[in-house]
Amino acid sequence: MTHKYKVTGMTCNGCVSTVQKTLSEIKGVEDVSVTLTPPQAVIKMQHHINVNEMNAALQQSGKYTIEEDASVHSEMMNSEKEEEKSKLQTYKPLIIVFLYILLGVVLLQINSGRIIWMEIMNNFMGGFFLVFSFFKMLDLKNFALSYSSYDIIAKKWFGYGYIYPFIELALGILFITGSYPVFTNAATVIVMGISSIGVIQSVMQKRTIQCACLGAVFNLPMSTITIIEDLLMVLMAMIMLFFMI
User: Fold this and answer.
1) Rounded to an integer, what distance in angstroms lies between the CA atom of residue 147 and that of residue 229?
2) Do residues 154 and 194 touch, judged by C-beta distance below 8 A?
3) Distance (Å, whole) CA 121 – CA 234
4) Alpha carbon separation from 150 to 76, 145, 237 (Å, rounded)
5) Torsion of CA 98, 99, 104, 110, to 10 degrees
6) CATH architecture of residue range(s) 2-77
7) In angstroms, rounded to a whole number, what is the distance separating the alpha carbons of residues 233 and 222?
8) Angle at the Cα of 91 (from 187 to 212), degrees rounded to 5?
9) Which of 35, 69, 119, 197 is deepest in the core (most CB within 10 A)?
10) pLDDT tens digit string along 61-120?
């Protein structure tokens, strides 16, 4: 982490050298850059260091004091808020889709007059696959292109990107109709498990690529949210399998 501070008491380049040397010797400081005009110190540190600790070290070297730059702190806070707002805006389509699927599942349970968790998970997974396959099929060619950039199967066989939305469609129909439940859940564990491998690899490598979970319609970046989405489906399928077998 890097922080910027105001420094008072410096009058010459000798003072700059003294302040820089003193601050660099504080445990946890990785790099220090001190300037006279403007009188400031930019400090890169391994962990947050209290200003009082830095002032205590500076007072032993001269009449120097250091304080956080309020304007910079304000800019950092605003920047963080903008980043959080941007992330929320980016993932807004995905959040809305999940909420709509969840709403449909809740309404079905209310209409049936009973709450059965196996049915809730079954219907949620069915709705998930149907809706997500729909978005992928809106632009099948570009989905396949995007999917081949990170999926371990689609990388080796491009055609898998064209088939994958139909696999999701088939799983969605099987979940909703309740057909072949053991096969359906086992297939979900395999399909989503394999899909999550490429996602995890891309996130760990910090690759800036488009997530194809909602097809090529929305420009969603690959992130931990994509991992959670895939592994959640795997987890629910495994839970349902556990109670079936």
Assistant:
1) 16
2) no
3) 11
4) 33, 10, 23
5) 130
6) 2-Layer Sandwich (3.30)
7) 17
8) 40
9) 69
10) 888 888 876 555 555 555 555 555 566 677 788 888 889 999 999 998 888 888 888 999
- Residue given tokens 């969605």 in the structure block: 172
32 in Cβ contact with 42 (< 8 Å): yes
Do the beta carbons of residue 34 and residue 23 sit within 8 Å? yes
- Find residue 34's DSSP bridge partners: 41
Q: Give me the residue label for tokens 């469609």.
A: 169
C-alpha–C-alpha distance, residues 67 and 6, integer Å: 5
Which run of H or E residues covers position 67? strand 65-68
The SS3 call for residue 30 is: strand
Give every CB contact of residue 112 below 8 A, 6+ residues apart in sequence.
Answer: 119
Band of residue 4 on the pLDDT scale cut at 50, 70, 90 = confident
* Of 213, 183, 186, nearest in space to 198 by CA: 213
DSSP letters, 160-177, are: HHHHHHHHHHHHHHHHHH
Single-letter residue type at 133:
S
pTM of the model: 0.63
